[in-house]
Specification:
The termini are far apart. This protein has an eight-stranded mixed sheet with strand order 1-2-4-3-5-6-7-8, with helices on both faces. It is built from twelve helices and eight strands. By secondary structure, the chain is an alpha/beta fold.
Length: 273
């Protein structure tokens, strides 16, 4: 397996396929690089080099008890990018991975990043406070933490229903997609996944978004039941210097999987623009 040992001794698993301009994919909580299968195959066949990693504590990477914070996540990406000597890279992040992608681009991406794509991303930040009154209440994240710690296996099955919009009338429910989400979640370490709830709910990416000058595509579904688009995608696009926003009617949080054809083609158009 491809693994890089970063400076604190954590092993980061990664996939690296193909040649051509690199696209680096950043997965969401509590998943792994496997969540990008539909994108990896699509862009590989289009002649791109595709790279994805399992974030520390997730998938096949070390089940860490420390360093489960966004600055360390971004630093891990920087070490992997330098190890692979990637340049002119398109960084694509989903959900928590969107925060990771923009933090990396803002702090480490000079002369290496060409464009960024944020899909159903947590940026600029999710939790409700005096500056974000329409955000998600702390009680919601406390519930996620509680269930991750005490009821993880059942919770990781149950959450797939709103994640993919399977509770909507007429939804095309695919058990294989649910099982694959569950499989990925249970591969990771419970401590890292528990810690990551704070990371994806409370990390503020406002300054990262303002700082990035390269083109950024923001994609979000208006029926996202996990990351509400009005407090994330809409605000993120307003903060970006060179952003483009697409809101998809009826798409769920898991749209890179359920709506892969649409998402992939819109990313490809953005890359080629």
């Amino acid at each position: 397996m491809n693994k890089l040992t970063v400076k604190d001794g954590t092993e980061i698993y990664f996939k690296d396929l193909g040649t051509g301009q690199p696209i680096f994919f950043h997965h969401g909580w509590p998943l792994s690089s496997d969540d990008w299968d539909a994108q990896m195959m699509f862009f590989l066949e289009k002649g791109f080099r595709v790279i994805s990693h399992d974030r520390r504590g997730h998938g096949r990477s070390t089940q860490t008890f420390k360093g489960n914070d966004m600055n360390t996540y971004a630093a891990d990406v920087a070490e992997l990018v330098e190890f692979l000597d990637l340049k002119n890279v398109i960084h694509v992040g989903h959900s928590t991975g969107g925060g990771e992608a923009i933090r990396y681009a803002a702090q480490y991406g000079k002369d290496r990043v060409a464009k960024v794509v944020l899909i159903s991303a947590i940026t600029p930040y999710m939790i409700a406070d005096e500056n974000n009154p329409d955000g998600v209440p702390l009680s919601v994240f406390d519930d996620i933490r509680y269930n991750t710690q005490h009821n993880r296996a059942q919770f990781y099955q149950d959450i797939t229903i709103p994640f993919f919009g399977y509770n909507r009338e007429g939804a095309d429910i695919k058990k294989g997609i649910q099982d694959n989400w569950f499989r990925q979640g249970m591969m990771g370490g419970i401590k890292a996944q528990y810690d990551c709830v704070r990371v994806f709910s409370e990390t503020d990416f406002t300054e990262d978004l303002k700082r990035v000058t390269i083109p950024v595509l923001v994609l979000h579904g208006d029926d996202d039941q996990i990351v509400p688009y009005k407090t994330t995608a809409v605000k993120a696009a307003e903060l970006l210097q060179n952003g483009k926003l697409i809101i998809y009617p009826g798409f769920s949080h898991g749209m890179p999987t359920t709506e892969a054809a649409t998402i992939n083609n819109d990313i490809l158009e953005f890359i080629n623009s």
